[in-house]
Amino acid sequence: MIIYKSTVKGFLGDVDSNRIGEIMVDTFFKRTLGRVSDAEVNSWRNSLSAMERIIGRSDLPTDAGIAIEYNIPATAKRVDFIVSGYSPNQKPSISIIELKQ
User: Fold this and answer.
1) Where are the beta strands (DSSP E) in 13-64?
2) Rounded to two decimals, what is the model's pTM?
């Protein structure tokens, strides 16, 4: 399960419009029927604002994929942030980023 997925362009827009926290809370509730603590929502907002600055300054293609809070199957663990796309020689590429506040 992925709590948030979009493109670089979509992610930048969702953070810039201050909608990212709301989108993630709504999706988390719909997919798990669970509530998210205020501390986790604040952590998401702070970390994802920092990632917006990094991604926005990068030369990543606007159609590269962004996934946030990917639940690793058969575990209770989640990957914080994933960027996916293709390298310059068209090989599939993925970067996994562990966010620390």
Assistant:
1) none
2) 0.88
